[in-house]
Amino acid sequence: MTALTNNLQPMSMSQLLDRAIRLYRNNFLIFVGIVAIAQIPATAVNMIGLWLAPTPELNFSPAASVTDIWLQTLESAGLGNNPWVWLGRLITLLLVQLATAAMTKAVAENFLGHKIGLFDAYRKIGRSGLTLLLATFVGVVLIIAIVIWWLVVPCLGWFTGFGILFFFSGIVLPLIAPVIVLERRTALEGIKRAWNLARRRFWWIIGFMLLLGLFGQLIVTGPALLSVFIVQGSFGSGLDSNTANLVQQVISLLLNLIYLPLRLACVTLLYFDMRVRTEGFDLAVLALSDDANADNLALTAPGLGQSIMPSWEEFGYFALITVAFVVLYIALVLGVVVLSLGIGGL
Q: Tens digits of per-residue pLDDT, 13-59?
């Protein structure tokens, strides 16, 4: 139990990343395999959909209305009336939630000192994968409700809506997976529990998730765009948009197979760290003695007593996020304008 006691200590951002990277490195093939079981079929379905029903290229007419432009943009992104694309989206959503549940289980078991195989991780999730999928749909409904709050409610909604949306979608939603998988919560309970956990270290957890997101952009988005640019440059005009989309999906698949396990490991360890800091989770696990594994962590979970309504202080935090976003957006626009004027003056 000494190694487990050392693991269950409050961690700084750098320590949390270091612990997740070491855990990922020691279980590289298992973690990548768990994600590959879901990502490869999902990508294959999306590629088949593009092959059977290619998405149209953007070709705006000068006389096109704003509505026509939006419709063409959505269709070119695969969000029109293409049933194959929608089928691919649904299958991807289901498989990704199952992989997320299995990865969470595998990370938790290894973190607590128990080795687990690739297929055992999927076998042990039970119904939590489907519960996580249901929670995702509920989360989408809540996001729509937050957007309505943002756009419709005068003053309070206008100033806090974006901040609430950012916090819920970027911070709370990722924490739902470890809550549902490890605490065996229902979809609604998982959302409420993740919301209350995230509120306990508001700015710290925002900073960590922004750091993790930046890390993901550097590892996945940047190399993916660069690779597609190189491929298009190599083939020139002979590469049509659908072929470029297929190439981009393959590249994104390979990069996601490397990054997603690390991201899910970070989120799971973040969940443990939050519980150690605020709930005495380390003492609760030590009380389980040799029974401390991911299957019985639900025994250490507290009740759902805290209200989900934000306090006035938290409304102030959300307003600060909204104002910060507006300031950054204005600075970005001004920077682009100044750069354009400077280039035009040369």
A: 889 999 999 999 999 999 999 989 888 887 777 777 666 655 555 45
Quote the Cα angle for 228-230-233, to 5°.
110
What is the model's pTM? 0.82
Among residues 61, 52, 43, the alpha carbon closest in space to that of 253 is found at 43
Angstrom distance (rounded) from CA 38 to CA 100:
9
Is 45 a domain residue? yes
Q: Report yes or no on 108 lying in a domain.
A: yes
pLDDT tens profile 238-290: 555 666 666 777 777 787 888 889 999 999 999 999 988 888 777 777 766 65
114: left (phi over 0), alpha (psi -120 to 50) or beta: beta
Q: Which of 3, 9, 19 is nearest to 266 (CA)?
A: 19
| Neighbouring residues of 190: CB distance < 8 A, sequence distance ≥ 6 | 131, 132, 135, 176, 179, 180, 183
Distance (Å, whole) CA 149 – CA 10: 36
State the total domains in the chain.
Answer: 1
Examine residue 339 and state whether it is found in any structural domain, yes or no: no
| CB-based burial, 310-338: b 16+ in 10 Å, e otherwise | beeebbebbbebbeeeeeeeeeeeeeeee
- Cβ atoms of 190 and 134 within 8 Å: the answer is no
* Start-end of H helices in the chain: 2-7, 13-26, 28-52, 66-76, 83-111, 118-123, 128-152, 156-167, 173-183, 187-199, 202-216, 222-235, 241-279, 281-288, 312-344
Kindly state whether residue 336 falls inside one of the protein's structural domains: no
- CA separation for the pair 309, 307 (Å, rounded): 6
